[in-house]
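Chain A, query sequence.
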Amino acid sequence: MLTQLSINNYALIDHLSIDFSSGLSIITGETGAGKSILLGALGLVLGNRADLSSLKDTATKCVVEAKVAILNYDLKDFFNAVDLDYEAETIIRREILPSGKSRAFVNDTPVTLAVLNELRSKLIDVHSQHQTMQLSDAKFQFDILDALAKNTSRLVTYQTDFMQLALLRKELLVIETSQKEANQQYDYNLHLFTELEEAAIKVSEQAALEEKLDKLNNIEDIKLNLSESLALSINEEVGIQNSLSSLVFKISKIASFSKEYLALADRVTSVKIEMDDIVSELESANENVSFDPEEAEKINDRLQLLYNLQKKHYVNSNEELLIVYEELSDKVRQVESAESDLHQKRLEIEAVSKKLDHVAEKISKARTVAIPKLTKALEFLLSDLGMGNARFSIKAIATSSYFTNGKDTLEFLFSANKGGNFGELKKVASGGELSRIMLSVKKVLSENIQLPTIIFDEIDTGVSGEVSNKIAAIMQQMSSNMQVIAITHLPQIAAKGSSHYKVYKEEINGITTTNLKQLSAEERIIEIAEMLSGKEISDTALTHAKELLN
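Chain A, predicted structure.
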């Protein structure tokens, strides 16, 4: 509930601070005294757009601050979600600087207007004749019905599953789209995949084949040089092998004379052993050198296949070809396994849909049971408010479609006159009738759910006499469950308040300002008497005012 409102440098208000209490609070004042300024300031602190025209003194900043007791509003999760400190008495502050810049704070933490507006919807409902058009909104109509049907927990469950269903359907669409695109390329991708699979590519084979082909293509040079190398090595007269044998023999003769010669003998012997091994390999290589045209052709064909595949896939190596092969494998496998994926996703959707159907059926049944109760309650209240012939025709119509709040559509029709045709509220109800219907709706809601503070802005316009007494009684009954603030021009309603505030203008040093004060018991009598008879208060008016207050 709103516990305090402080306003500084706003419109015609210099400085104003007023405390509010629970129950029914009344605000009265002459036309033009500034009741709309109060609502404007309250709207500003709750997130309305601001501009420099709001400043009384354009050289000084405007500050509007509201203290709100939120202990009973179950808002801890909301505060945590928007990263705000939760306080049982929350302070909301809005500032407009002379530069035109606007700032908003909740418990001294800066917030955006989006967060402020979301918080506003949970704290204060400012209701005027303009807001009665909300009655024609399908969501609002469902909210009324679901409040009586006690559908809150069912709707939470339903909405969780509804979001899951929406996600699964989105995933199914992605799979179907991917499959469609993949199917269009499947034959071509399968051909490319099969071609690479049959090629049985190995990472290192290309280099080995190129080396082998190079050897075969130069077989004559290889044979000639091997033969000549062998001749140089084993020639009996000048061959390296024979010369090394002679060298080993000569050095061995002097090896025993010193360690130096012994070391030389060992080294020359090692060279001789290595040379003997080289000669053996040269002989083997020379014997094995031969040209096989069939083998050369096979190698050449294999290399050409690899070159062609690399060119076809715009790569430069077998490693890259194998990456292409894996990618094609995935694409082919995706198409071949897509039907299984689709089937699995459809099974998931079917399972969630069954859960949704089950909850939606419970929601629908509860609505069907609640409709007669809602109809009876509204018609009873409207009868008290001077609309004895008011009738409602409300139907929850089950469909096969999934909506965010169930599977029903709602037909919410109204007739104000006996024997009259039912029609949509916005088409068949007048402004005054809509105001009384909205008051009745709020009364019903206040008995079934925790409503935020409600401010009725001259909802009693166009009514008088006994109807005004009934409106006052309804507001009084509502105030036992919630804080109600009523801006009114009717003495019958003003007298029902547990506290009474007056908006008034005064002129100080040639400057007009708007003020608000809480009236004492004596001041209330005078204010209500003035509402009854005007500025010239008669004894009869005073007596009547006392009677109303008693």
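DSSP finds 17 helices and 15 strands in the chain. The mean pLDDT is 88.
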